[in-house]
Amino acid sequence: MKRALVKFRNSAFRNYIRKHQKYAPIIFFIGGFIFDSLTLGRIDRLYDLTVLCLHMTSLTITLYLYNLADDGKWKNTFIERYEDYFPLAIQFFFGGLSSAFVIYFSRSVSLSKTISFFIILVVLLFANEILKKRISNKYLQFSVYFFISFTFFTFIIPVFIKLMNTNVFIFSGLVSLITTLTVIIVIYIKSPSTRKEIHLGKLIGILFLIYSTINLFYFFKLIPPVPLALETGIVAHNIKVENNQYLITYEADKRNFFWRKHKLKFKYNPGENVYVFTSIFAPTDIKKSIFHRWEWFNDTTDTWDIVEDIGYDINGGRNGGYRGYTFKNNVKQGLWKIEVITEEEELVIGVIDFEIVMDDGFQAVKVVEKGF
């Protein structure tokens, strides 16, 4: 045993980590991001669920081991040899989980109102590199852990129970809060150094502040209704269905934005239909009623007027997203937006913006027909 321990302490990998200690955390962070980017696809795949659950479980265990290491808890055990890697492992799992959530959120072609929460995730993703110098700050450590745990459970629980609504979101948040408090209290009881470094009441107050803030984001519809995602949103001149394929005729934007296929200015002839096509990702077996809320910007009142809600049901599981479309005619000239919302809570999955201009007689620049 002693020979193995000496061999490990003198290993090339351990010496390399110590020599490049300054850059090791960012290397592990990038490693976690690349790993998730290359391997994760659908939140309801067994592989994705397994990876995320392993990440979260490993993060929790590593957090426990790391916080007790300062008390010499693992002295003269096989765990002692790995103590140098605990901060790096925490960095890896923080990076892996936050990057996974960014990947899933970025599937939506329109973040609109939910962009603020997405920005928080992106900031957390890149701020993770800063944690290499502050990972020992237990307030920061447990706060980031709780935020990631909250996001994790709001993704995972709807997939497992095949249901998604406000009650499920509240339940997911409570599961995360109870789990985080349990981890903290166990560490607090078992670690004298932790009891010296933190005031338990202050830490619990920080967690409840984060919990309240996330819930406020949700009820103000600033968090997308995960795990639903708007994968495609197109304003079209014509839509027809042939052999279970939606053939969309639309004017493409020559600038080829990856998040928007259609041109923002829709050339309209009075009397023709304006179509909006969407494909929405939903995990297998999740069923949901979806509405296209057609809104027109009223220049007189400087507000968005709701013109009509047109709904349809979706059933999850299709790789390309559940497809559907709505249309209107005799529409007014000006700015329009289609909010893709859930029926019960009116949570915004995505927003499709466009402007209707009367046809000036010139042909559309680039009209294409594409199958979905």
Task: Using brief descriptors, characterize the structure shown.
single chain, 372 residues, alpha+beta, Immunoglobulin-like, 2 domains, five-stranded mixed sheet, three-stranded antiparallel sheet, 11 helices, 11 strands, 24% strand
| Major sheet strand order | 4-10-9-6-7
Portion in beta strands: 15-25%
Got a strand count? 11
Helix/strand class: alpha+beta
Largest sheet: 5 strands, mixed
Arithmetic mean of pLDDT: 80
* First-residue to last-residue Cα separation: 61 Å
Please estimate the helix content.
40-55%
Calculate Rg over CA atoms. Answer: 25 Å
What is the element string, with H for helices and E for strands? Answer: HHHHHHHHHHHEEEEEEEEEEE
Question: Could you please describe the fold and organization of this structure?
Answer:
With 372 residues, the chain is of the alpha+beta class. The chain has two domains: 2-219, no CATH class; 229-371, Macroglobulin (MG2) domain (Immunoglobulin-like, Sandwich). Helices cover 45% and strands 24% of the residues. It has helices at 2-9, 12-19, 24-39, 46-69, 86-105, 115-127, 131-134, 138-161, 166-190, 192-197, 200-219; strands at residues 229-236, 238-242, 245-251, 265-268, 273-281, 287-298, 303-315, 322-329, 334-342, 348-358, 367-371. The strands form three sheets. It has a five-stranded mixed sheet, with no helix packed on it. Helix 3 packs parallel to helix 5 (86-105) and helix 8 (138-161) crosses helix 11 (200-219). The longest helix has 25 residues, at 166-190. It is elongated, with a radius of gyration of 25 Å.
